[in-house]
Amino acid sequence: MNQLVAPARDLDKSTTPGALFSTLSIPIAIVALVVIGSIASPSFLTVNNLTNVLNANSAVGLVALGMTFVMVSGGLADLSVPANVAMGALVTLGAQDAVGIGAAAALGLLVATLGGAVNGVLIGYLRINPIIATLGTGSVLLGLSQLLVGGGIVYSQPNELANFVKSSILGIPVLIWVFVFVALILHPLLARTAFGRWNLAVGGNYRAAQASAVPVRFTKAAAFAMTGFLAGLCGVLLALSNGQARPIIGTGYEFVAITAVVIGGTSVFGGNGSVLRTVGGVLITALIGNLIILLGFPSQATGLITGAIVLAAVGVDAYFRRKAGRQ
Q1: Cβ neighbours, 10 Å, residue 49
Q2: pTM reported for the whole predicted model
Q3: ∠ at Cα 31 (30, 33), nearest 5°?
Q4: pLDDT in tens, 9-22
Q5: Transmembrane ranges (predicted)?
Q6: Which residues contact 211 (CB under 8 A, 6 or more apart)?
Q7: How far is CA 286 from CA 128, 165, 218, in A?
């Protein structure tokens, strides 16, 4: 499929309808949601509410940042995210008594990153379909995590690292700071560096990138390893902030992350995307969820609305790609 799409450099021109749609849709959608929320509920546009909304979505936002690289490089999606979140959380709390909370958190990150690296080898070097590969590794890792704790809950011991994660700096929760910090690192990595250009090139046209001496296998493998690391970081932060962890701690996070990335305008077909647009997608999904709660709708409506938005976004993306391919 990647061989049939136009090169990434052509699709990123700001004058194309697809690029204009991606550029303007995010700020317009955020402003529209803020206006609707302000009219619908007096408690929506308050500092406390917006801070709580951002704090609750920062951990899964980290996964969305990693998923951006997977999609941009043409890797479709990483379905092993829930398992890597669980491994990061369970290893952190499970090893805290043996090695201390700091080393245990590092161990949790290492295990999750290794899970992502295995995905990278299977997909980047062995050319296995990303959906099949990550579904398989996710099932193995989730089964392993359930065996480690017997399906039960692991609790955190009082420690300084957990206190720090649950604290605020300048009135802003640490989880939000972590999300912003990681986004500020990854945005120039994708937009300004050779590695970022490799991701765009591999996702835009795999064979052309390979012919241009781009390390296509390494690039795809690195995107999945990065997502594994960020899923592990999400798990570590959730475990420390909640004070407990269980194997299902990351259930559904892969869909939330995919939703945020797609709403942000990153193409599911690869070759086009932006970390900043993913941040916008995280904000939109968070605001939609908050509005549904404030308006008293059932929580199931969140999946219905975001799913419909994802289908619409994918349809628009496919339309503009076909149109660009004919030109």
Answers
A1: 15
A2: 0.88
A3: 65
A4: 444 455 566 666 66
A5: 20-47, 59-81, 101-125, 132-155, 167-190, 221-240, 252-271, 278-297, 303-320
A6: none
A7: 33, 21, 33
